[in-house]
Amino acid sequence: MRSKVRWRLCWENELELVEHVELADFFRMTYGPTGAFNAKPFEGSRSWAGARPELRLIGYDANGVAAHMGLLRRFIKVGTTDQLVGELGLYGVRRDLEGLGLGHSIHAMLPVLQELAVPFAFGTVRPALQKHVERFGRHGPLTILSGIRVRSTLPEARLDKPPTRIEDALVIVLPIGRSMSDWPTGTTIDRNGPEL
Question: Which residues contact 128 (CB under 8 A, 6 or more apart)?
């Protein structure tokens, strides 16, 4: 039987070192099964992979960290239009609670997005997660956009790699303060920074 999950919303500067360590362990266990490379950014006490979140929504239960979603307000460029978004990312849920799902995390984050007055929530996911995201999208105003190239910078400048990465990811847009008809058109999105 699943234990009850309680949600905690906290600003990044409110986290103590022990919490970063606990989150880093959670992400290594959550992302590690998808490939050793995916767990690598969370070595030691690092509890973020690319851009550092501004706010975190952390789900806890009797066994510790159960789920996590990060939020970062930023301007992205959609085609030629600068667009303010609340980028959602750094999502994870403990394997024994996978039914807790993306939907629970976004619903718990929704009042925060409304309070921050961002016009849209934005995120990207691998095409392999399309069916998972579509299931959630049936219950709300979430829109999934495909065929869009997303450019991000690498978290660190490296001599052996180009400074930017271009991906064909699924783009997720959730209208918050505006309608989806106000989302700019374009076949490219430039994060102007690392992905969350």
Answer: none
